[in-house]
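lol ok so funny story. i was supposed to be doing the assay writeup but got distracted and ended up predicting the structure for this chain instead. priorities right. anyway since i did it might as well share w the group, maybe its usefull for someone
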Amino acid sequence: MTVSQLNEPTPSSVRSVLWPSQCNVFVLTAKSRQRSALKRFFRLVNRLGLNKVELRNDLPSGKVTDDLSHQQVRELAVRYHIEILTINAVYPFNRRSEEVRQLTESLLKEAQAIGAKSLVLCPLNDGSEVPASETLGALRDLAPLFAFYGIHGLVEPLGFPQSSLRSAHQAQTLIHDARVPFKLLIDTFHHHLYPQAADEFSQVEVADIGLVHLSGVTIAVRASSSPMPSASC
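and the output, tada:
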């Protein structure tokens, strides 16, 4: 049975996600959900034999849960045996402002209310330079909020040339230097966009990766003196 035969959102509406802490655990993320389609999305995930999802706040409605209450989302999750792993995302997390802090706390409250385990942090992506010290400070500023609400933080480097944080290795270093319990979110699309990604990835500790987005990109294999380590479970 194909996805289209399910009369549900098409394949372009979802992205595969790998949860590295468990082998062969795949998650679907609603990339372009239509208005009030959360129930259909959960039903699709269930009928595909999966049980984990990522929800987003960058859809046209700007809402994580469409027009559903938090209790309704929890009830849907129970009905379709769904675990909500994460909400994507706080943007731009490394712009230290009261507005970003309020957005972060709002999404943390929402994550807690619907039972989501993690919240994604995305860096500024408009071409403005953000010093590493500013990003480190932002991580330290936000970490106590995550601890208070009991939600895990996932830092996602964006590979676009205008991104203020492109490197997974740099993100890992900043997390370590900030002494915060956040992990990395690696997106294969953004990994592909960052020219030094393959060379630097050998320096990334697999244990520091909390989530992987598997995007449909064509990756050109190139020679490297520091080949990417094989990931096996």
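The domain at 28-213 is CATH 3.20.20.150 (TIM Barrel). Strands lie at 14-18, 26-30, 52-56, 83-90, 118-121, 152-155, 183-187, 209-214.
back to the writeup now i swear
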